[in-house]
Amino acid sequence: MNNRLKIARVQMDLTQQQLAEKIGVTRQTISLIEKGKYNPTLKLCLEICYALHKTLDEVFWVEERDYHEKS
């Protein structure tokens, strides 16, 4: 899964810690998501998007060809 989490977070002038506190996770979780080393649940993706006032498509996506290769 690709993401623009860091870009969206910085646009909102939030640190990793501040975003983590807003959605009830650790700063390490935010860091891992930003690095692409942790795939969050849909629920967590939505919570992040709501906190950043962004849509899922603006923050998270999967390349269509990557999806089809795994199917």
Provide a descriptive summary of the structure in words:
- The protein has a single domain (2-70), classed as lambda repressor-like DNA-binding domains (434 Repressor (Amino-terminal Domain), Orthogonal Bundle).
- Helices cover 63% and strands 6% of the residues.
- It is built from six helices and two strands, in the order βαααααβα.
- The protein has helices spanning 5-11, 16-23, 27-34, 42-52, 56-59, 64-70; strands spanning 2-3, 60-61.
- Strands 1-2 form a two-stranded antiparallel ribbon.
- The model has no long low-confidence stretch (mean pLDDT 92).
Percent in helix: 55-70%
Label the overall shape. Answer: globular
Note the quaternary state here.
single chain
Q: Strand fraction band?
A: 5-15%
CATH superfamily: lambda repressor-like DNA-binding domains
Element-by-element helix/strand order: EHHHHHEH
Distance from first to last alpha carbon: 15 Å
Q: Indicate the structural class.
A: mainly alpha
CATH architecture: Orthogonal Bundle
The count of strands amounts to 2
Radius of gyration: 12 Å
Q: Which residues form runs of ≥5 with pLDDT under 50? A: none
Main β sheet profile: 2 strands, antiparallel
Number of domains: 1
Find the CATH topology: 434 Repressor (Amino-terminal Domain)
* CATH class (first level) name: Mainly Alpha
Mean pLDDT over the full residue set: 92
Total helical segments: 6
Reading side by side through the largest sheet, how are the strands ordered? Answer: 1-2
